[in-house]
Write a structure and sequence with these properties.
alpha/beta, Quinone Oxidoreductase, Chain A, domain 1, Rossmann fold, 10 helices
Amino acid sequence: MCASGGNPVMTTIRLEEPGRFALIESEPPPRPQPGEALVRVRRVGVCGTDLHAFAGNQPFFTYPRILGHELGVEVLAVGAGVANVKPGDRCSVEPYLDCQKCIACRRGKPNCCANLRVLGVHIDGGMREQLVVPARKLHPSATLSLDQLALVETLGIGCHAVERAGLEPGEFALVIGAGPIGLAVMQFALEKGAQVIALDVNAARLEFCRSRLGVPHGINGAAEAPLDALRRITGGNLPTSVFDATGSRDSMEGAFNFPAPGGRLVFVGLLQGDVTFNDPDFHRRELTLIGSRNALSADFTRIIGLIEARRIDTTPWITHRAPLARVSDDFPAWVRPGTGVIKAMIEA
């Protein structure tokens, strides 16, 4: 779009402070430099990070900030030396901007780069019409829809967590928390052939897991004792893999009770604080505690292939939509649990 004076501007949504968005006009980004791509943002998925930022309890966050890291984009132009994408390509964006130099990057773990900057968290993200990104962070698909491409990042969190756990076919895997990240873990645990158990206190979310994702076992923690239910489901053995996707201290500390001896506990959700556990019990069962952060480029590639092959179905995910210009009006409702949001999608 253009301002009245003829200078080009673009529509941008910026979170000015907790609870307050502003619809502003900003200057378009510059032409892409070597190794970069200019993209038109078409879809922005709303995730827990965005909801926490709106509520004012997102760690590693400063205001004002342009949110948006779950992106489905169209390439407009590329800089010199870019060969992996071209103008017109539709892509998912890997929003983790790593330095490529630190020890984590050199050892193949750029997702936990010592100097990591995440779009929409540490630096401005995609709730705007255009942005420039490193072309190596674009993952194209000739067949996936823009909605599907925007969901790849969320799915990547679950995919990476399941890979971190080394999940095997047939084992019982408990996923605590049936929000978007927990659902992503469930999808990839099911894809691995695990016997998945969903634990939540929201009956509607548990029904979604059963009816839309095909999760075979559900436990309502508000209605029954989780440990007793787990013993019943697993024949007394308890699950060998447990994933906590809540970001809740009480849940994360309680999760140490659930793995079978020799099992693994994977923290996928992030808590802004400390987690404590009983060390003798931890050692007695020789548990393995695993942190899982973000995802890798290989996860994005794998997910796109799985969706293209129809082994992962994204159809149930998107429950709410809004155009970019209505984010200020609609976003506050998405924060409320009673709204029933699984995944809200912004169309730009």
